[in-house]
């Protein structure tokens, strides 16, 4: 039995019961694929169900406010996915009358969709024989064939895509693609793969040569940057505060946050109030207290945020126009959502 037949045979017995597997509607498949980038199924499931209930069609998603979408996305991270999702939904409605493009060549031109997602939608929904390559596929193929080309190198990306395409069962490409993704998630896991019960263990190079733990190979990551955030949590006597929308192309674009002063190290209260930025913001008398006694380290893919929340109590402040009762309606990063959950429970 060849590789694809054995893989599909395994899948028919072991596949996960997932709601997006029960449809060929490209809108639902697209939604699931975008949500599950950088996100485990267990975490993404509730978000998928909430989104499909709130936005049952691509028209509903297209006409929603971005702020509403970002609020619903809160906790999933990588918020550019949500913004691209919204942009593409509006594009499909305006340019294609709500009909999802049906070929890989047209799907991959959509904002926020790369080779993997385009291949998944084209094969699952439209039976186009184009192979998916994601983290699960890299792992399965590198271990089975004993390939040590770095998967995050341009050479590796090309090599694995070509290999994946040669293995694809063109008569059931959607089933094959879902099979290899499930196989990587369930059987050939990153840690403690189930090699003893694997249908490929007799022919798997990594298993035979004891290289399971070293494959796949990744080139060294970029150096992690340290940043130091000081959030100014304003409380006026009339129970107002300040939340600003993050602009630009940096992290958390479109989400809201308390006024932020970024420093080059962890600072204390005296250092904070001596900063020109702070003085300009609070010309009047204030009471300042550090909410978290130890800095909170929030880890993103290429940066670690060392964060302090400073509670600033003042009689009045012209910029403070948001009632504390409405704060939870705003889409915020998880870092701030976690603070608010704790802070509001003690108010």
From TrEMBL:
<keyword id="KW-0479">Metal-binding</keyword>
<dbReference type="GO" id="GO:0000701">
    <property type="term" value="F:purine-specific mismatch base pair DNA N-glycosylase activity"/>
</dbReference>
<dbReference type="GO" id="GO:0046872">
    <property type="term" value="F:metal ion binding"/>
</dbReference>
<dbReference type="Pfam" id="PF14815">
    <property type="entry name" value="NUDIX_4"/>
</dbReference>
<dbReference type="InterPro" id="IPR003265">
    <property type="entry name" value="HhH-GPD_domain"/>
</dbReference>
<dbReference type="InterPro" id="IPR004035">
    <property type="entry name" value="Endouclease-III_FeS-bd_BS"/>
</dbReference>
<dbReference type="InterPro" id="IPR023170">
    <property type="entry name" value="HhH_base_excis_C"/>
</dbReference>
<dbReference type="InterPro" id="IPR005760">
    <property type="entry name" value="A/G_AdeGlyc_MutY"/>
</dbReference>
<protein>
    <recommendedName>
        <fullName>Adenine DNA glycosylase</fullName>
        <ecNumber>3.2.2.31</ecNumber>
    </recommendedName>
</protein>
<comment type="similarity">
    <text>Belongs to the Nth/MutY family.</text>
</comment>
<feature type="domain" description="HhH-GPD">
    <location>
        <begin position="35"/>
        <end position="186"/>
    </location>
</feature>
<dbReference type="InterPro" id="IPR044298">
    <property type="entry name" value="MIG/MutY"/>
</dbReference>
<keyword id="KW-0004">4Fe-4S</keyword>
<dbReference type="InterPro" id="IPR029119">
    <property type="entry name" value="MutY_C"/>
</dbReference>
<keyword id="KW-0234">DNA repair</keyword>
<keyword id="KW-0378">Hydrolase</keyword>
<dbReference type="GO" id="GO:0035485">
    <property type="term" value="F:adenine/guanine mispair binding"/>
</dbReference>
<dbReference type="GO" id="GO:0006298">
    <property type="term" value="P:mismatch repair"/>
</dbReference>
<dbReference type="GO" id="GO:0006284">
    <property type="term" value="P:base-excision repair"/>
</dbReference>
<dbReference type="GO" id="GO:0051539">
    <property type="term" value="F:4 iron, 4 sulfur cluster binding"/>
</dbReference>
<keyword id="KW-0326">Glycosidase</keyword>
<keyword id="KW-0408">Iron</keyword>
<dbReference type="InterPro" id="IPR015797">
    <property type="entry name" value="NUDIX_hydrolase-like_dom_sf"/>
</dbReference>
<keyword id="KW-0227">DNA damage</keyword>
<dbReference type="GO" id="GO:0032357">
    <property type="term" value="F:oxidized purine DNA binding"/>
</dbReference>
<keyword id="KW-0411">Iron-sulfur</keyword>
<dbReference type="Pfam" id="PF00730">
    <property type="entry name" value="HhH-GPD"/>
</dbReference>
<comment type="function">
    <text>Adenine glycosylase active on G-A mispairs. MutY also corrects error-prone DNA synthesis past GO lesions which are due to the oxidatively damaged form of guanine: 7,8-dihydro-8-oxoguanine (8-oxo-dGTP).</text>
</comment>
<dbReference type="GO" id="GO:0034039">
    <property type="term" value="F:8-oxo-7,8-dihydroguanine DNA N-glycosylase activity"/>
</dbReference>
<dbReference type="InterPro" id="IPR011257">
    <property type="entry name" value="DNA_glycosylase"/>
</dbReference>
């Amino acid at each position: 039995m060849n590789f694809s037949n054995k893989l599909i045979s395994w899948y028919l017995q072991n596949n996960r019961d997932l709601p997006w597997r029960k449809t060929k509607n490209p809108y639902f498949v697209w939604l699931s694929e975008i949500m599950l980038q950088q996100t485990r199924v267990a975490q993404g499931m509730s978000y998928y169900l909430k989104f499909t209930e709130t936005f049952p069609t691509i028209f509903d998603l297209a006409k929603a406010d971005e702020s509403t979408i970002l609020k619903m996305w809160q906790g999933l991270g990588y918020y550019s996915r949500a913004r691209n999702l919204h942009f593409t939904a509006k594009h499909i409605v305006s340019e294609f009358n709500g009909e999802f493009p049906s070929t890989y060549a047209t799907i991959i031109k959509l904002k926020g969709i790369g080779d993997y997602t385009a291949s998944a939608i084209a094969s699952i929904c439209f039976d186009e024989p184009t192979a998916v390559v994601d983290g699960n596929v890299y792992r399965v193929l590198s271990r089975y064939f004993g390939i040590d080309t770095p998967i995050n190198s341009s050479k590796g990306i090309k090599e694995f895509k070509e290999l994946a395409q040669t293995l694809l069962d063109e008569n059931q490409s959607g089933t094959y693609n879902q099979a290899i993704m499930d196989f990587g998630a369930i059987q050939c896991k990153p840690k403690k793969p189930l090699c003893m019960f694997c249908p490929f263990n007799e022919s798997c190079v990594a298993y035979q040569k004891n290289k399971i733990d070293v494959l796949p190979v990744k080139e060294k990551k970029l150096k992690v940057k340290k940043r130091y955030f000081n959030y100014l949590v304003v409380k006026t006597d009339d129970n107002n505060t300040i939340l600003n929308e993050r602009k630009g192309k940096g992290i958390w674009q479109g989400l809201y946050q308390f006024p932020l002063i970024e420093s080059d190290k962890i600072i204390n209260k005296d250092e904070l109030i001596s900063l020109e930025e702070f003085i300009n913001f609070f010309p009047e008398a204030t009471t300042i207290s550090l909410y978290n006694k130890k800095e909170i380290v929030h880890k993103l893919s290429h940066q670690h945020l060392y964060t302090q929340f400073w509670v600033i109590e003042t009689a009045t402040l012209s910029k403070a126009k948001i009632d504390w009762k409405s704060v939870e309606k705003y889409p915020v990063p998880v870092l701030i959502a976690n603070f608010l959950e704790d802070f509001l429970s003690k108010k």
